[in-house]
Amino acid sequence: MSSAAPYPPGERYGYPLYIHCGMDQLYEVNGHTWRRFDDGPEVDTGAGEGGSDDWPIAQQAIFGFVTLVEDDLIKYSIAGGEVIATYVPTNAEPEVCM
After folding, report:
1. In the 8-state DSSP scheme, what is residue 5?
2. Which residues contact 3 (CB under 8 A, 6 or more apart)?
3. C-alpha dist (Å) from residue 70 to 16, 30, 74, 75, 88
């Protein structure tokens, strides 16, 4: 979802969420970095924390979907529609993870 055309609100798009260092941010969705603001489950494969058995995790990514609910709110869901994280845009520099 980098510099492609912006995604309109209400539509769901496949988006692999790389979770080596956790689920705290999404990169380059509609030109923004997004920061998680809910207190839902956390997964960090670099620390050995796995997700729920029903989450579509392969290697170091969750293969789910982003839905731009409003210009300032993204919901991240898995195939069955369960929302597992919510995000808001941020002006902060993206965190670098090694």
Report:
1. S
2. 28, 31
3. 20, 12, 7, 10, 10
